[in-house]
Amino acid sequence: MAAFVRRIPGNCLQYTCMSNPNKSSSYCFSRVFSSTIIVKGFPFSTTDERLAEVFSQFGEITEVKIVKNKDSNKSKGFGFVTFTGESDAQKAKMEMNGQLLDGRALLVDNKSPERRFKDARKRTNQAGG
User: Fold this and answer.
1) Would you say 4 and 13 are in contact if contact means Cβ atoms under 8 Å apart?
2) Which residues form the RRM domain (predicted)?
């Protein structure tokens, strides 16, 4: 079975089955760009202020958050830096990935989309599983 796919305005694709040209489906997609990067591998002694100082050379920062252990309130060695613009975040990612911060190599990447597992667990528990 052959198919024809064409792009239509608004980040959409239209899929048409050639065996039945009257039957077609449209699929819309979007790519989420983020102005937030994740920074991993910095020393546990690094503060929010230090991280902001290092990354501020790439643009205006709106938030810096170092992830900490809930019990001990000590850094886990990674955090998030949010810029006002996506291009500043990408520039920081390209320039700082692999660079040293206080003797430790940084791993800088795009922030991953948040995963939502709570709803799946609720459905499993409600179904008796």
Assistant:
1) no
2) 35-113
Task: Work out the number of other CB atoms within 10 angstroms of the CB of residue 129.
Answer: 7
Asked if residue 126 is part of any domain, the answer here is no
Torsion, Cα of 46, 48, 51, 56 (10° steps)? -160
In angstroms, rounded to a whole number, what is the distance separating the alpha carbons of residues 65 and 56?
Answer: 14
How far apart, in whole angstroms, are the C-alpha atoms of residue 121 and residue 102? 41
pLDDT of the residue at 121: 45
Give the mean pLDDT of the chain. Answer: 78
- pLDDT, one tens digit per residue, over 110-120 is 887 655 545 44
Query: 86 is written with which tokens?
Result: 């996506």
Q: Are 4 and 67 members of one domain? A: no
